[in-house]
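Exercise 7. Given the encoded structure of a 182-residue chain, write a plausible sequence.
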């Protein structure tokens, strides 16, 4: 009987610890109005880096550390990727970023998903939205969102790692204005 009691306490302790990590991730994520960070992005083996600012809901500004002066901007409805020589315009809803930039939707998903531990350091939540597989990664100690991985309908794998994360900074609203085509 004593062994059964010890096993039950161990089981409930693990369940509560797991639940508390998820609850802490949710609490921290709820409090975020905006987040700025450095990133490294790997798309099918091609690595790019730079820095980004996300403002919820659905706004992002990223400046890449590339000689072509690549910038990615979403204003909540549209997404523009601009370089010195090219200009791409997309409806935001047609991209996996639309889901990643929708904090309220992500919170609902996280609440209903099972978490998975990765390398004792990270918590992962996985789901499929609009034929795109999305993996979100959170730091197990700080509860910060530290990256995501998407697989789109064409099987392109995009992995984004976040670092130097700053939350709820004062932002200039014009940063999310879509750049014009040259």
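Solution.
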């Amino acid at each position: 009987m004593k062994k059964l009691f010890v096993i039950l306490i161990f089981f409930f302790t693990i369940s509560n610890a797991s639940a508390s990590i998820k609850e802490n991730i949710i609490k921290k994520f709820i409090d975020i109005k905006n987040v700025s960070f450095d990133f490294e992005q790997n798309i099918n083996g091609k690595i790019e880096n730079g820095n980004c600012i996300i403002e919820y809901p659905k706004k992002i500004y990223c400046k890449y550390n590339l000689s072509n002066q690549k910038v990615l901007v979403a204003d909540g409805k549209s997404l523009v990727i601009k370089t010195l020589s090219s200009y791409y315009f997309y409806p935001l809803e047609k991209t996996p970023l639309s889901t990643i930039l929708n904090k309220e939707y992500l919170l609902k998903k996280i609440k209903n998903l099972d978490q998975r531990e990765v390398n004792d350091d990270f918590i992962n939540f996985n789901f499929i939205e609009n034929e795109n597989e999305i993996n979100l990664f959170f730091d197990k100690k700080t509860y910060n969102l530290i990256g995501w991985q998407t697989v789109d309908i064409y099987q392109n794998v995009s992995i984004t790692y976040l670092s130097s994360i700053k939350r709820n900074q004062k932002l200039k609203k014009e940063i999310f204005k879509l750049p014009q085509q040259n």
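Remark. The first strand starts at residue 34 and ends at 43. Students should compare their own answers with the one above.
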